[in-house]
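Forum: Protein Structure Q&A
Topic: Joint prediction for protein chains with partners

I've read a bunch of threads here and the consensus seems to be that you should model interacting components together rather than docking separate models afterwards. I'd like to see that in practice. Below is the full input, 1277 residues plus whatever partners are listed. Could one of the regulars post the assembled result?
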Amino acid sequence: MPDDKRQKILVVEDEYLIALDITHTLEDAGFLVVGPHETVADSLEQLAEGMPDCAILDVQLDGEDIELVAVALTNNQVPIIFHSGHAKPSDLEQRFPGSYFCGKPCTPSHLIQTLRTAVSR
Amino acid sequence: MATMDASLSDTMADKPTHTVPIVGVGASAGGLEALREMFGAANEETGIAFVIVQHLDPHHESMMAQLLARETRLEVHQAEGGETPRADHVYIIPPGHGLAMKDGKLELTEFSRPRGMRRPIDDFFESLANDHEHLAACVILSGTGADGSLGLRTIKEKGGLAVAQEPTSARYDGMPQSAVGTGLVDFVREPSEILETLVRYFHRRASHVRELEDSASVSAHLQDICSTLRDVVAHDFSGYKQSTLERRIQRRMQVLGLDHAGAYLDRLRRDHGECDALFRDLLINVTRFFRDREHFDQLRFEVIEPLIDNLDEAEELRIWVAGCSSGEEAYSLAMMVADACDERGVSPLVQIFATDIDEKMLNIAREGRYPPAATADMDERLAEKYLQGHGDHYSVIPRIRDMVRFSNHSVIKDAPFSRLHLVTCRNLLIYFGERLQQSVLPLFHYAIQEGGYLMLGPSETIGRHDNLFEPVDLKARIYRRCPGRGTYPTELHAASHQSLKRQAIARRTAMKAINAEDDNALKRLIERYGPAALVLGPDGAVNGSYGRLARYFEFPTTAHGPASAAGLARPGLREVLLPLLRQAQEDRSRVVARDVEVRSEFGSQRVNVIADPLPDGQTLLVLREIEAFHPEADDDLAELGPNDGEVQILEDELRLARHRLRSTVEELETVNEELKSSNEEMMSMNEELQSTNEELTTVNDELKSKVDQLTVANSDLKNFFESTRLAVVVLDKDLTIRSFTEAASEIFPLKTSDKGRSLEEMTSKFGNRRYLEDARAVIAGREHVERQFVTDDGATYLFRALPYTAAGGDISGATLVFTDVSEMTQLEAELARERERLSLALKVAGIGVWEYLADDDCVRFDDTMAGMYRLDGAGSYPFQEILDRVHPEDHSRFQNDLRRAISNEKDDYDITFRLLNPDGSEISLRSLGRLVTGSKPARLIGVSFDVTADAREDAMRELLLREMNHRVKNLFAIIGGMVSLAARHADTKDMMAQTLRSRIAALGRAHSLTNSGDDQDFGDIQALVGAALEPYADHEGMTIEGPSIAIRTEAISSLALLLHEWATNSVKYGALGDPDATMKIDWCEDDGGGIRLHWTEELSRERNSEEREGFGSTLVAASARQLGAVVEQQRDERGYRLTLILPKSCRMISDKRYSS
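Posted by a regular:
Agreed with the consensus. Here's the joint model:
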């Protein structure tokens, strides 16, 4: 749907239930969810088709590191929200300045608020 | 009377000024003891240097210095020559040399005389006196003989001090006795008091020198002192030179410690001994043979030879030596005269009168024995001819001795000799004051016959009396008497009112000055107006005469000794005289022989002869004329002939008898001379023996000390031998046992009686006897042998054989030392075992030991360490090489910690670090170390062990923790998601709550499987299924079966949720909701490595078909998707079968992370 005016948000999350929940949350808030993707490869493939307006990334996928995806996004000035119970914010902020972080578990309102802040920049 | 050396009148500035007084100490036999006592008393600074001169055996090392050093606080050296004696130092004569002082330095001299005839003490004292004068002192200690006494005189002459050991305290009193006998010793003291006396004397001396200007007090009392002295010793010194007197009086005061002349005067008045001492001091003198030899040569040429040449036949050559002192000058003259006579082949009668007032000096002169020093100026030819050597002294030959007659006579107060050809009076006038000098010269003029000569000392002149004497040789002070009648100087003799010292002594208590005029009148009265009288000795000798006696006695022209009054009496008197005297002496009363006619060639005189015994044993014989003198004609002689003849015959017989007696006496004298000379030889031999004896005694003393020390050393050694636990056996060259310690008898069956037996004969506790070979080897010259012996009962001994070195350095045997080292050996073995155990433990534990040496900056590794670092082997490696192996990230920590540990900032070194091996592999090491306390250079010792496994586990644990944390947070997220999703599908609140709670419970159960206490991080499908169906376990138709298969943790939540949804569905619609249904859950591995799980329900009724696609289905789909699983569903009317095909990735297949 090329004429869709909704902002496109890439979701990378390997936990299906959570991905589902995020998808619902975002769609309820009026965003267009790209994905959700479970693997780095899928995500990169998706990115090749076009950059989203923002991305919510689980840091650690099933044994994979999200870094490649994050790098690609950063290179295209796409704001990133890391959504993880894992990595410490300082590491990520250092590696990806300007990125956002929402620790798991996170309330949907906090996620949306962060997303709005990120895309409005 | 004496001559005096110039020293006292000289100023002291002529000589180099020495400031340290030097005391010469002479000692011989028994001297060691006295020296110890003397120097042992030194307990403070003395300010005096000491030089000890002894009689030593020239071939024997003297231990004197060591022996004495032990006793005194002063520093003791053996003199080496060239030293300047320093205060508080003691110098000891070395053996084989004499000692002298020259220009302030000690000088070793060679002895010129053979052993036994040396007088080193005299020699040293003389040189000391000449060099140090008033700063010299001498001390004479125990010893036999008389060495030192002559030197002492020189010391005194030069103004020094003389001290002698109290003879009663000396082991051998010969030397002190002889010194005291000179009468010149200032102090006689016990040895322990001598040092203090010397210190006090020299201290006073120093203070006196400062006050030298203030001699006024002595001057003021000079007259009183002289008169006191005159009263006591009967010699008047008031005419003597004032300065000389004062100086000598001051010296006496110093000796006595008196500061005021008044006090000294008091002392002099109270103490007649002091008078004698002062008298002696005033007469101190120096003289020697041919003193001023050129003057004597002149005298011989100008005077003696002409005199002899011009002598009438039968004329006697009469010479007077006034002030002869110890006689050298008189003997010199005698020798010169004798020699001149010999040259001319004449032998005139020669009379040399030598006089002095010092009886002690006269005794020396009469003895005619002189030290070699006295002959220094003498012509060798004359010495050879007229002196006999006796080793350490010379004596004048009898011929010369007989020419000189010594007598106690004062120039001043006694009547002079007369008709003299020559008077010598040398160095006497210099003592006299001007007035006295001027009165003595006329006296000489009176005494010398016309054409005779006078010789004075080099610094004396005839003064204004050039009318009496004319110079012959001005330089030699030889004068000729001017013609003219000699005037007897009454002035001089008027002053001397006593003729005999005896009388003076008798009058000491009550002295009355008799007016000189009275004396003259009395004399005149006696001579002119009194009756003729004689004073006769107890033997009838004429001791004195008064008035005109020519009528009664016949005086021969030549006098030979004291004449007997009876022999001299004229006929008539001669007969009565002896009986009269005898009676008077026997009765002790006056006896008179009346009307005695005395006949002479001129006539006869009748007299009464009165014999009046005097209190002193003499008899006064008074001849009172009772008739006028009858001159008689010659023919009277015939008349009286017969009477006279009888007497004449008797007299002839008497003369004959006398003649015989005389020749007998002469024979006796000859024999006597021979005996005397034999005696002298004996004496000299005796002296030699004595001197040898002294040396022996000295050596003996030293040996005694040595023996004492040896005894102590011996007892030390004995105690050591008895107390030591060391087994020592001393052998001599042929392995004979010399001595052994108690402990040695444990090895050899030794008894005291075995000393002297050979060790070869002895058995021992050892199996072999190699110690004998070793002992021989050591005796043969090997340095030492060491080996171990094991006894039969298992004890171990360390054996050492050492050469036994005798005092000379030769090997004279062997010392065998056995040390019981059983315990040590045992300890050593235990230690080795312990070490083995430790090293094994280290090895097993893989612990390496290292040592860091801070100074060298290197590290020492053992094999284990080297292995860890992949180095070649144990050894020392530079620190940098080690550091290069350390993981770069750990470099700084590694270095810093080490530095801190070395500088002791932190007590212990404890670090875990990584090593990067050359092959790229990494291992972790933990190093512990500690600074070795007090090590210098600083050393750190420590261990290292491999902690790679631990490190890995730690990392794993951390990972797990993180994982768990993540999982929990994930779970929360899932629950959050479930809640959101549930909210979307829920019909009612209660419904939603119920389903959610059961789902969360299922998740919780599943989760607890992953956490079931053990470390397993995986679930078991068996347990998982059980847990999922646990709430329905009471359903009778349910069976669960399948093998235990491990499931990945990540898969557990999804699988549990899936099974939960299935179970929930089954409760709602299927078997679990039907009590009669059966249900079977089973699983197995499929061919692809995955798991195939079957869920089979057989319902008792038809399955409720109202089931619809709800959230449960979404959840199942999501879960399956998450698991990558495929769900197959088959259903028929009553059966319902679900098949879950799980991929291999869900299984827990040996993950590399878990390999350990």
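Residues 1-210+645-713 of chain B form a domain with the Rossmann fold fold (CATH 3.40.50.180).
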